[in-house]
Design goal:
The structure is a homodimer of 202-residue chains.
Chain A: E1 4-9, H1 18-31, E2 34-37, H2 51-67, E3 71-75, H3 86-97, E4 102-106, H4 112-119, E5 125-126, E6 132-133, E7 139-140, H5 149-156, E8 163-164, H6 177-190
Parallel strand pairs in A: 1-2, 1-3, 3-4, 4-8
Antiparallel strand pairs in A: 5-6, 6-7
Chain lengths: 202, 202
Amino acid sequence: MTALRIYLAGPDVFLPNAAAVAEAKKTLCGAYGFEGVSPVDNEADTAGLPKHEAALKIFAANERAIRNCDSLLANLTPFRGPSADPGTAYEIGFARALGRPIFAYTNVADSLLERMRLQAGNRLVRRASGQYEDADHMAIEDFDCADNLMLVGAVEGSGSPIVMHATAPSGRYTDLVGFEMCLKLAASHFKLGRRAASAGNL
Amino acid sequence: MTALRIYLAGPDVFLPNAAAVAEAKKTLCGAYGFEGVSPVDNEADTAGLPKHEAALKIFAANERAIRNCDSLLANLTPFRGPSADPGTAYEIGFARALGRPIFAYTNVADSLLERMRLQAGNRLVRRASGQYEDADHMAIEDFDCADNLMLVGAVEGSGSPIVMHATAPSGRYTDLVGFEMCLKLAASHFKLGRRAASAGNL
């Protein structure tokens, strides 16, 4: 029987040890009966190409990989700001429109509003409407959500909550406890037996 | 004849005058023969709902609106960091998987790498591999791209470049010159005649 394939989206592709993290994720996928498919594998074949051409080649390979997968598991840990990596957000939207179930975790366990409040030193401005806004006067979503409501809707619309598991800052992009909890949710979704027990960090 | 419908994605939904900006965008859409569809219109019908339920209702309405549109026009202006709003990124991915052509503009005309370099005061760390990385040791894409390569690929894969039009900081989220340039590209894509001339800021 061919294993169900899960596309592994997340900013961990930008880690110095991205290939090792991808391998660790694939190993965990295997333990739950899945085949993990990482975008890291699509970066190898671009040597010698002009930069922009390399980007478009990786893009096309990533889209193809998502189409060829049965599901998507995303790392929504905030990246360069209070929200998820936009490439990951793109891939979630892409998979969602294809009808693939989405699973997601974040290694920072606050709502978007709580994170913005901490960042602003508890001095968020409030509009007459009651909405909070940031220093650019842009409204901060106040929906008890981990991130932008489109990301939350895509995951919850697939039948599972976003797994929120706070980690130490040093493990923010490498801790795989939340990732493994997503695999359990995915296995339950697809009704696979759990083939092995394993959890932890890189 | 029914006008072709364009979904208007972007962080301008978070502006204090979001409804006015959405109306200005719709008016410009009309001038080019399109019907503009704004997610702002999906926020009205949530009064009295628990927060999280309101979020999921807006999410579902936005996805439905994208499905009912022929195209998507995104504002990729950096939002709370060096990259586009993740909700916008999600919606681009969703529309792309449905086969809708994507048009996009940004009111900050630098590559992602240039923005990160400015932010770091020209002191970016370089890896032995030649890749640049940020303070979290995460690689910075160096592909001559305005943002994450998935967003760039989605727009260029639809046949148009990302419109980059630098504006004054005060007009960062309201300037509509780049938006109108996208409408011209969309009109050309769909081979519509231009029905009126208009450009400028709110």
